[in-house]
Specification:
74% of the residues lie in helices and 0% in strands. By secondary structure, it is mostly helical.
Length: 84
């Protein structure tokens, strides 16, 4: 991957990582996504020096999961307000 560094391969890799999560049970809020963001950020940190392209892709995945966490937190707050 590092030698080619193609944007198409990068998009495919990111999609594959997200799709590999499969079916999951939705808890309240974005805690699951924050855990995934932490996992992929740690992987990115380990790879950045030797594999900057792959490390960047992993950082993008972490950022995507972090955005999802914020979105899920917002949805949980709205749902809670509507129930009260």
């Amino acid at each position: 991957m590092e030698g080619i560094a193609s944007s198409e391969i990068g998009r495919g890799f990111c999609s594959g990582v997200h799709n590999s999560r499969g079916v999951h049970w939705r808890g309240e809020g974005g805690e699951q996504e924050r855990e995934l963001a932490t996992k992929y950020r740690a992987l990115a940190d380990r790879l950045h020096f030797d594999y900057p392209y792959a490390g960047g892709l992993l950082e993008n995945i972490a950022a995507s999961y972090q955005r999802e966490a914020v979105r899920e937190d917002s949805k949980a707050k709205i749902t809670k307000r509507l129930r009260d």
